[in-house]
Structure formats: structure tokens, C-alpha cells
Amino acid sequence: MNVIEMDGLRKEFTVRVRAGVLRREKRTVTAVDGVDLRVERGEMLGYIGPNGAGKSTTLKMLTGVLMPSAGQARVCGLRPVADRTRLALRIGVVFGQRSQLWWDLPLRESFDLLRHVYRVPAGAHAARLTRCRELLDLDAFLDTPVRQLSLGQRMRGELTAALLHGPEVLFLDEPTIGLDVVSKQAVRGFLAELGRAGDTTLVLTTHDLADIERLCRRLVVIDHGRVVHDGSIAELHRRYGSRRMVVAELDSALPEPPVLPGAPVQRVEADGRRLVFALERASVAEVVAGLAGLATLRDISIVEPDIEEVVTRLYASERKGPLLTPGV
Amino acid sequence: MEVRGALRAYRSLLGAQARSQAAYRTSFVVDLVGNLGATVFDVVTVLVIFGVTRELGGFTLRETLVVVGLSSCAFAAADLLVGNIERLPRYVRTGLFDAVLVRPLAALPQLLLMDLPLRKVSRAVFGLAVLLYALASAGIDWTPGRVALAVVAPPAGVVFFASVFVTTATVSFYWVDSGEMANSVTYGGRDFTSYPITVYGGWFRALFAYGMGFAFVSYHPALALLGRADPLGLPSWVGWASPGVAFVAATVAALAWRVGIRHYRSTGS
Amino acid sequence: MGSVTATVGPPTDAHVTPWFRTFGAIVAAGFRRHATYRQAAVAGVVTNTVFGFLRCYIFLAATGAAGTVAGYDRAQLGTFVWAGQGLLAVIAIWGWTDLADRIRTGEVAADLLRPVHPVTSYLAVDLGRAGFAALARLVPPLVVGPLFFAVYLPRHWATVPLFLVSVLLAVVVCFGCRYLVNATAYWLQDVRGPMILWTLGSGVLAGLYFPLGFLPGWLEATLRYATPFPGILQIPLDVLVERESMPTNLGLVGLQVVWAVLLLALCRLVQRRAERRLVVQGG
Q1: Residue B269 pLDDT > 80, yes or no?
Q2: Beta-carbon separation of C43 and B192 below 8 A
Q3: What is the mean pLDDT of chain B?
Q4: Cα dihedral angle (A213, A219, A224, A227), rounded to 10 degrees?
Q5: Do residues C128 and C34 lie in contact, with contact meaning Cβ atoms separated by under 8 Å?
Q6: Exposed, middle or buried, B224 (CB in 10 Å: 0-12/13-18/19+)?
Q7: How far apart are CA A163 and CA A262, in angstroms?
Q8: Backbone angles phi, psi at C8, to 5 degrees
Q9: Which long-range contacts (C-beta less than 8 Å, at least 24 apart) are formed by C37-41?
Q10: Tell me, what's the ipTM?
Q11: Which chains are within 8 Å of A by 3+ CB pairs?
Q12: Residues sharing a CB contact under 8 Å with residue A116, sequence separation 6 or more, in sequence order
């Protein structure tokens, strides 16, 4: 069953640009340019794209904050803007840089307030809060006013706040932005746990691809308001030809880089004592065997494809033109 | 059931706002006093002007004070309840507006309750005190009708000013930097209603008094209470029109707010 | 280079010229920065105009049958109100919290690292701001007012130049007061108290809500000589409408000079105290 449906979803903004001393020109900017997506219950969807690609705009249309210019969206079978308050009871939203919490009140009081705002039965509220307290380690700062919390602590509070009414869908806009490594791990671990339970659908926008690698089986890449990839991370690698690398450390440099079938040399480093091969058709064993005949191997390591690099290449090729067919 | 749940939610938001402000006790007291001062000076200004003249627009000090009382009571209470909606551009900028839109409650009451400036209570109380003093000292010939009007006119004025606050704030949905301009109608309206409208003239009076309806906040009710005929020639029952005018103003405000939110949603300013 | 010693740099050309150049550059930067807020200026002009109408009608109503009140005739009141509405933005009587904000966030430390004294550089920025406001905010009410009300045009040739000098001094006096109010942030956690006192006091004591001439004579005289407030609004306006004779007006402007010097000296003193405190306590 689809929890989220987007059909030709589109959002245009009119911006006024100064064009001379007094003259102003209206210009239309398309932030989201015809997005079709289906998200099933329990899916964890990573939504990535460069700045201004339309990620947050999409999320705002799905949560009822913005009205689509064209196309339509359904979340939990409801129309986000028209059925805003009914939908609000069934979704949770975390805007990474904006707070849902009460700045001057202890975290605990914010949670209590949200219970009234969302009209959650006391028992269910207490049960969910207990679970969040355990998983997110909230106890140490539950009585601290929000304004005194660190960003990481606050984000853990925001997550809890978004989940206390037991939403079916959780929308997260940049949940790890600005967090330190430890807090990032805590947030990711918590979301992974949430995903494992399987009854919450998760839609996550992020700049940090590590979030995606850790959490999302499905990845949607958006650029210039259009979906350019929709599928698993492995599929992304396959489609855009990202390859594993073999890094070989040699005792001494070879007179010239060796030619191994199916594994071209990518880089020569450390005065020729470190060689990087891309695995195209050859296997790791074949590369090692081929090298062993030519030089003394000191060390060998395998580097998994870097999603960041793939995405960078993806954006770059999108900009150049339709070298690649957009995703389904 | 649904309504009761929502009411309980709004009450919780109000409680949270009260506790938030209690976190800054000294500032709160300072603000309480400062806000009182603002309304005191409004009244002092009127007294000073009557220090150099015996009559203003054909009205004596005692009569004018009834106008002042109705005006400052209505304005101060509306400012307390709804005045902070003038901070709408800030709500949009800080994301509070979006946060409010993803909650299962109406947006406007949430914003008002979450930022209710309780420190302005002092002004509202002072405004009421001025009104009571003015009513007591103006030598009004009390009839049941006038008692009823004295009870109905101030809340009608509150609703009217509240509507003006909301309507003018919606301008910033379209024009973010318009901030100060709303003041010309809100605070301008307060100053306008602090004097008998006979003081003003020409199209300016027509615009503020009847175009925008400010004459019904204090001037016409005061005439009816004092039992004076309108020097400008309107019949005496006009003093009773204030609740009706307030209702129209509230309708306009609700409409403006709806259209404004729709515009926000379609532009995402 | 003349007699430059190790301890005292006398104000030779070599020192004064670069100082003026720096000061001028900061003034120009202040002008340009504020020139970007054009929409806000338009909104402000509309507001000033509405309040111009309100105050003008109310004060005129106070003139009664005689047509004069507290030494102003109807035309003089017209000029007093409309020029006053324009001056409000030039002196920036309300809403300036730049210094207090920078103290609160600690950014003020960066100001101390600059080679220009903070009081001097803030004053220069403020003069630049006032320059833009004089064009964008003072002129419109002066044009709109006469379209709807009788206004008084100065008769003495020296009045207009004296008015301009008086406005410049009013900006400096107002700046000095605002700087002192903001500087309380060095000692107080929350400056809303001083800010509110200033907002309330300045409006009524400077002659905005009503000309100070409406007050009893002894009170007006006390305010005039014992406080800087009339110097930020009432004095320039009285000079413009020639409420008193030219020698008296010259005396009033002289009074502004005294207050300007006093306040700037006080600002420097307060700033030095605050800096010493910052250095000792590390903010």
C-alpha cells in the first residue's frame, strides 16, 4: 500500500528581480518540476540533491505547508493542504534547522505540551516517551530548558517530539546537519531502529550521504526539481559505472605503470610506489596475481565505491546534458 | 469532543507561554512597568493638550476622556491579545510559521498563544481604569440602554482593533518589509480614536472614521453615552452600531488571513 | 613632519587628513548600507505621513479661536509637525540596538580591534545613515505636508542654514543618548529596561507627542537646560519655525553643541570603563 503518492508534483515560485533602478522583472523559478513517486508503508526513503534542488520544497508540499503549483500529492490518503490538520495527526516532521520545541521550557514540558496539542492518550504518550528516552538517552537533559541544549541534544529532542503521537510517516529535513560525529551516530542508530520496526515510513532529505548509506535502501536523487535517480544505492553504482578500486603498495617503483587486463591504472602515487587500479572486469585475485609477477607487494587494499563521488558525477553529467536517461 | 480537545490544547499553549515568560522574571517586571508607561503617556498627552485649550473639537476634557477611555481600553486589550501578530515576518523567517502549520490546530490561534505578550496586561488594566474613571466622572445620565452600551462598546472595540491588527499583518505575506506601515493603521488608529473625530477634517477624517470604521470604536459610542448629538450630523443610534462594525471588521480580517495564508502557501516566501 | 614627539601627536595635517578620510569613508559606507533598505523607507514614509496628519489636526484643534497656542500660530504648527515627522527617521530616535546586540553576542570584541575608536566609528556610520534618511525620509513629509496644511516658511536668511546645523547636532545628541542606552548592555544581561525608559522618555521629552511649549513654563525651561532631550527634536523645529528671535535660536543651537560634546565625552568614558571591564573579566 502506498503511503505517499506524488503525481506530476510541481512547484513554481515567482521572484522579482531588480532590473535597473526602478524596474523589476518577474521571473519564474521551478523548484520542483514534475515529480512522480510512490512510497510504500515502512519504506525508508533517502531524498538527496544539491542546494536548491527542491528537496525541502517537496517536503513542504507533502506536509501541507506549501501548495503545489500543479500535480497532486497524497499522504496517508489525504490531501496535504486541504486536510492539513487531519494529516498533521498522522505525520511527524523534523525541520533540521527549525525547532518544534519551546525554547524557554524544559524538554519534558515541551513533550507534555505536544501531548495536548496532538491529543494523545496519556498511556500511549508515556510508552512512546519511555522508549525514546531509552534509545536516545534523553534522561540527562530532560529538565534542561531547550535554549541551553547542545545541537545534538536538541535534535534528539526534536526527534522525540515528532514521534510522540505515533505518526505513520516521519519527514526529516536535514536531521543531521551541523551535528557532531557522536550525535550523528546516535540519530542514525535511532532512525535505523525505527526503520527495523517497520511500521513507520521514513522520508529523509540530507546532504550527508552517510545518512543514506546507513539508513535507506531506496535513494531518490533530485536535481533541478527533477528525479534523476530512483533505486537502491547498488543500482546507482551500477548505472553510473562506479567501480571498486584496488590500491597496491609496492616496495619500489616500477619503471612504468603495468597494464593489467580489465583493471586500468587510475592513479600513480607516492613516486610510483602506490598504484590504484579500477576493477572493471578483472577480479581482485587477478590484479594481485598480475602484480605479483612484476613487483614485490607490501600491502593491498580494496576501496568500495564512494557514493559522494558518484553523486557528484551524476550532478555534473546532468548539467552537461542528457547523457544519461533520467530515472524511472 | 473534538472542540474540547482543541480547547485543552490551546490552554496548554497559553500555559507554556506564561511559564516561558516567567523564566525572565526581572525583564517581565520591567516590561510590565514600561508598557504601563506607554499608555500613561497617551493619556498624559491628552491632559497636556487640554492644559493649553479648554475645548478640543467642541469637546471638554471630561467628554474627551470618555473617548480616550474607550479607545485605550479597546486598543490595549486588543494589543495584548492579538498585537504580536505584527511579528508575522519574524515567524516566517524563523520557521515558527511552518512549525505551526504541521500541527493539528489552526495556525492563527497557535501563533497568538505561543507569543502572547503577557507583559501588556498592565496596559489593558490601565486602559480599563481610565475608562471607568471617565465614565464615572463625565456626569453621564445612566439609563439601562447606556449601561448596556458601556458594557458592549469596549469589547466591540477590542474585536475591531484585533481585526485591524490581523488584517494589517497579512500585508506582510505579500510585502515582507512593510512592517512599519502596519503601524500607521494600528497605532495610527489608536491615536485617531483617542480624540473626537471633529478634530480631524476632510478626506483624512472620512477615510479613517468611516472608510476604515474607526469612528465606531470610541467617538459614536461616547456620543451616545454622553447623550450628545453628533456635531457632524449622524443620528444618535449610530453609537449602537459598534458591535455590527466590529463583526464586519472581524469578517474582513478572517478573509484577509485566509487569502494571505493561501498566498504564502503558493509562494513559500 | 614638525614637532611630533613620542607621546603626543599634535593635530598636524599629517594626522588630521587621514583621520577625516577614514571618518568620511565610514560615513559613506553607512549611507550606502542604509540606501539598500528602500522598501522599508517607503513603508516608513507612509507611516510618518499618517502620523503627520493625526498630530497636525490635533495640535491645530488646540489653537482654538485665537489661532495661536504656546507661541505657535497655525502655520508654525504645520511646519513643526511635518518637519518633525521627517526628522524622526533622521535622528533615528527609536529602534537602534546595533551596539547592544553586538555586546550581547560578543561581536563587539571585533570593534575593539579596529584602529578607529568605537564611538567614532559608530558615530560615522550613524551620520551616513542620517544622510540617507535626510534624503529619503525628511524630504517626503516636507513635500506632503504643505499640500494639505498651511505651513510656515522661515523669513530670516540664516534660519535654514542654522536649522541644518541644528539637525546635524540633533543627530549627534540623539546618537550619544542611544549609545549610552545601548552601552548598558556591557553591565546588564537584558537591556530592555533602559530601552523602554528611553523609548518612553525620548518621545515625550523631545517634543514629539506635543510641543514642549504646551507644558508649564518652568517645566519647559527645566527640560531645555537640564536635559539633552529637547536638543534631539524640539530645538531644531523651534529654530525652523522661528518661534523665538535669531539670537535666542543661536543660543539654543549653542546649547545643543554643549550637549553633543558632553554626551560624546561621556560615551568615550563609558566605553573606556567597559573595555577595561572586558579586558579584566574576559567578557
Answers
A1: no
A2: no
A3: 92
A4: 170
A5: yes
A6: buried
A7: 50
A8: -120, 125
A9: C37/B177, C38/C136, C39/B175, C39/B177, C39/B178, C40/B177, C40/B179, C40/B180, C41/C133, C41/C136, C41/C137
A10: 0.93
A11: B
A12: B8, B9, B11, B12
Contact assessment for residue B86 and residue B93, using Cβ atoms and an 8 Å cutoff:
no
Q: Where are the domains of chain C?
A: 13-281
Query: Cβ distance C214 to C69 under 8 Å?
Result: yes
Q: How far is CA A206 from CA A178, A201, B261, in A?
A: 11, 16, 28
> What does the block give as the cell for C255?
546649547
Q: Most B CBs within 10 Å: which of C48, C51, C57, as the mutation test of the B interface?
A: C57
Cα B207 to Cα B185, C50, C53: the distances in Å are 11, 11, 12
Q: Which of B72, B41, B126 is nearest to C200 (CA)?
A: B41
Q: Where are the domains of chain B?
A: 2-267
CA distances from C81 to A3, C17, C53 (A): 64, 40, 9
Residue that is written with C-alpha cell 447623550 in the block = B227
* CA dist., res. B269 & res. B177, Å (int): 12
- CB burial of residue C225 (10 Å; 0-12, 13-18, 19+): exposed
DSSP B8: H
Q: What is the pLDDT of residue A178?
A: 83
Interchain pair B268, A116: CB under 8 A: no
Q: Do A91 and B102 touch (CB under 8 A)?
A: yes
What would the mean pLDDT of A38-67 be, rounded to a whole number?
89
To the nearest 10°, report the CA torsion of C225, C230, C236, C237.
-120
Q: How many residues does chain B have?
A: 269
Q: Give bridge partners of residue A274 from the DSSP assignment.
A: A249, A269
pLDDT beyond 70 at A61: yes
Tell me the β-bridge partners of A265.
A277
Residue environment code for C41-53, b if the CB has 16+ CB neighbours within 10 A, otherwise e: bbbbbbbbbbbbb
A14 contacts on B by Cβ (under 8 Å) = 267
Segment A40-56 mean pLDDT: 86
- pLDDT value at residue A99: 83
What is the grid cell recorded at C5? 614627539
Domains identified in chain A and CATH numbers? 2-238 (3.40.50.300), 243-303 (3.30.70)
Report whether A296 contacts A249 (CB < 8 A): no
Interchain contact, B184 vs C61, CB within 8 Å: no
CA B28 to chain centre: 22
Q: Which residue of A has its CA nearest to B95?
A: A98
Average pLDDT, chain C: 89
In chain B, the residue whose alpha carbon lies closest to the alpha carbon of C71 is: B52
Q: Tens of pLDDT along C14-60?
A: 677 888 888 888 888 888 888 777 888 889 999 999 999 999 999 99
B98 membership: H or E segment, kind and range: helix B96-101
List of residues 6+ apart from A251 with CB closer than 8 A: A273, A295, A296, A297, A298
Contact B53 C44 (CB under 8 A): no
CA distance readout (Å), B173 to A105, B268, C36, C39, C153: 29, 10, 21, 15, 42
Residues counted in chain C: 283
Question: Residue C38: its pLDDT value, please?
Answer: 81
Chain B window 104-143: which residues touch A at a Cβ cutoff of 8 Å? Answer: 104-106
